[in-house]
Write a structure and sequence with these properties.
Elements (H helix, E strand, L loop, with lengths): L17 H15 L2 H10 L12 H14 L4 H9 L11 H9 L5 H14 L23 H12 L12 H12 L15
Protein name: HD domain-containing protein
Organism: Ruegeria conchae
Pfam family, one: HD
Length: 196
């Protein structure tokens, strides 16, 4: 049980002992166990009152996940469709990279790549209207995940703005999110070595 009454006395990492780090890890395990709840709150925060889109980003996220689910996508990809725009909250101009970084310890390389690059692939549908290159995604043609990302954007993301689409509620996806987040590698820096 975490001793919440004892405050550490070290002031830098190099002063901390093994016992100190054991206490830190115990705290972090408890804190990290609540990650699904924080991500669910982040998804709910996309439920803004006004939007220039036909549906807001919360409804869009639910609809993208519903489309992936109805298409028979694996659970990891359904969850990716659900959370793909949560990075918009803190980093709207590179939200794909933020969403991908958040999910990296929990998803395959393929799903991580799709999340990271979905913004560039979405640009195919609107960049040319804004003075950009709609084919910017083609610079990634050599990736083994190019077609997967194109499909994700075409079938789940760019279509998910239909106010009449029968969209499943967040509660439907919550168990999937919790299962995907239960498969993580933990602290990724602990898996790094000095070799290679």
């Amino acid at each position: 049980m975490l001793d919440k009454t004892h405050k550490p006395t070290w002031t830098s990492f190099e002063e901390a002992t093994k016992a100190d780090w054991d206490a830190v890890m115990e705290y972090e395990e408890a804190y990290n166990a609540a990650l699904p709840d924080r991500i669910l709150d982040a998804i709910r925060s996309l439920d803004e009152d006004w939007t220039p889109y036909p549906v807001n980003r919360y409804q869009h996220s639910l609809q993208a996940a519903t489309r992936a689910y109805e298409d028979g996508a694996d659970e990891e990809l359904v969850v990716a469709a659900l959370i793909h725009d949560t990075g918009d909250i803190l980093s709207p101009y590179n939200h794909g990279e933020l969403s991908a970084a958040m999910m990296k310890p929990y998803v395959s390389e393929r799903t991580h790549w799709i999340l990271k690059h979905h913004c560039v692939f979405q640009g195919y549908y609107y960049n040319h209207h804004l003075g950009g290159d709609r084919n910017a995604r083609d610079k990634y043609r050599d990736s083994p995940y190019w077609e997967d990302c194109r499909y994700f954007c075409h079938e789940y993301d760019q279509k998910a703005f239909d106010p009449d689409y029968p969209t499943k509620p967040l509660e439907f996806f919550e168990p999937m999110l919790r299962r995907v987040l239960s498969k993580g590698e933990g602290h990724m820096e602990l898996n790094e070595t000095s070799e290679g």
